Every structure is written in structure tokens, then in C-alpha cells.
């Protein structure tokens, strides 16, 4: 018996429900009625023979079947939207546009030279370059706002949805203000009671702490502040009694200026990967492939 293929509108409905949390909000986002949303999901559930949503007074949530389908549905919806934009650009004679997200830490590394080389070779391609927080990088890749991102990725980050092309690596180190009493402490369990400053997302902090501990099981520090602003981070890190986390290339400059000193502890070092990130399902255009090549060459990792 011939099986009917999934309809794009049904996948769009599933994505809208996941993003907006209720059938009514999804209907508003899609500019359709709520009964139309309900009908679309019921048809999809009948087609697949599984329950995709669980309904409650607080709204709806996806079942494990719904979550599995959502990953594919997002990719399909995003690619269709990209195709529509590309066709519109072709019809209107508009220039091709690449949207690039750059993390705060990565913005000064390789990017200036890469952008200059790209502009010289492909001056007619429009570039939108956005400096972003780590969470914005992931959201932008997921919803198709960014074609590609250049970012530092911690070992603790979950990147299964994306392809990460490594173009560099940095070691994360612990440091305290120069001359601080904590500089004499070498045992991580004694440092856990200090005030900590972290340079990535709060969600990734527990995994980072486990990496530092290695085989030991130590309680999470009670006082942890997160700051992703490079300028403010340096100022907060200089407060007495603060243990801060630094990529080695930034800590070297702070040491040279006499503001910070690294800790010689029994903690295990954690690595940051400087990588090019894009969705696994993305079909690379010629312009995007050349941009990737420019970044790799500027970072000294030419293919």
C-alpha cells in the first residue's frame, strides 16, 4: 500500500506548537484557527500511528514521538523557508545574503582577516554579522536566523544538532587577582567555597565543574556569577576572593598587565574549541563554502 508523504503544513504546525506552547498561540502564529491546528495534528498522528502531543490545563507538551519528529520537522521547515527566500531574491534580482553569528570571545580571532578576504573575492554578497551570546548562537542556528556561526564551544556543550568544524583550541584556566590570598590555595575542594566567576552559560556550569573535579565528587560552589561581557568580566574578576575561569589567550594578556595570576591547582583543565557551527542538514552554498574557507585560512587551518 502506498504511503502518503508528510505534509509541510502539518510539520509547520508541530513546530509552531513546540515554539509557542499552546494550540491557540500556534494558531495565532500561523494565522489560522485553533480547530485548523487541532485538525492538522490529528491528521499527522493518524498518518504516523503515534500520539505526538499530550494535552493538559497548562497547554500541551510533546511526547517522545513528538520530540523525535520535531527535530526533523524543524530542519524541513527551515530549509523550505530558506528556499523561499532564495527564490524571492532570484526573482527580485536581489543580492545573496549570508547571516553570520559570532560569539563574543571569537569576534577578535580570525574574523577580521576572514571578512576582509571574503569581501575582496565576493564583494556582491551581502553579509550580516552579529556578535552574540552563546544562547543566541544556538537559537539563531536552530531557527535559521544564522547560516553559520563562529564560536568557542566548551566540551560540556551539547552540539549534536550541529556540525562543528574545529579551527582552533584554547585551554580554560583558573585565575585569581594578583596577590590575592587564594593564590596560595591548590586544592579544588577548598576553593569551592570562594566566589566564582564563569564566562559561559549557566546551564553548562555543572558539566564544567564535573570536568574540573575529574574522578572526585565535590559539591557545586554556592556562589557562582556568570558574565559573558569580556570588558565587564575582567573587572569582576579583579574583586578580592574571586576565582575566575579564563581561556589561556585572554589570561596571558591579564598576566602581562599584572592584574591576574593563574592558579596552580589539582583541577583538570577544560578545553574550548573554536569552531564553525552550522546545522547538519544545511546545504552549503558556494558563498558559504568560501566564507568557511576564509575563516579556516585566517585561523591557520586551511583545508
UniProtKB/TrEMBL annotation:
Alphabetic keyword roster: DNA-binding, Transcription, Transcription regulation
Record bears the keyword Transcription regulation: yes
Residue intervals of the HTH lysR-type domain: 6-63
Example GO molecular function: DNA-binding transcription factor activity
PROSITE patterns according to UniProt: HTH_LYSR
Keyword DNA-binding carried by entry: yes
GO cellular component: a single term: cytosol
Coiled coil feature spans: none
InterPro entries in the record: HTH-type_LysR_regulators, LysR_HTH_N, LysR_subst-bd, WH-like_DNA-bd_sf, WH_DNA-bd_sf
Gene3D superfamilies reported for this sequence: 3.40.190.290, Winged helix-like DNA-binding domain superfamily/Winged helix DNA-binding domain
Pfam family, one: HTH_1
UniProt similarity note: Belongs to the LysR transcriptional regulatory family.
Entry-linked PANTHER family: HTH-TYPE TRANSCRIPTIONAL REGULATOR YBHD (PTHR30419), LYSR FAMILY TRANSCRIPTIONAL REGULATOR (PTHR30419:SF30)
Listed name of the protein: LysR family transcriptional regulator
Naturally occurring in which organism (per UniProt): Caballeronia hypogeia
